[in-house]
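Example record for the data management plan.
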Amino acid sequence: RDVAKLFVANPLNSTDTTKYHTIRQGDSLWALAAEEYGDVNEWRTIASANDISKPRALRSGETLVVPALV
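Corresponding structural encoding:
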């Protein structure tokens, strides 16, 4: 499959599509949840999908799965 076609078929602004996010300095799960889901309280969804036990200890360059909301 052509990866570019997959991105066209699954718009990046949809909450029903699994996405990936590369952590940059200053990022937080709370901000990422607000950006992706429109709800800061969904940070636990991202933490759970990535086996994160210390959400304040994110490392720059780390790639996280941002799962689809069910």
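Summary line stored alongside the record: The two ends are 26 Å apart (CA to CA).
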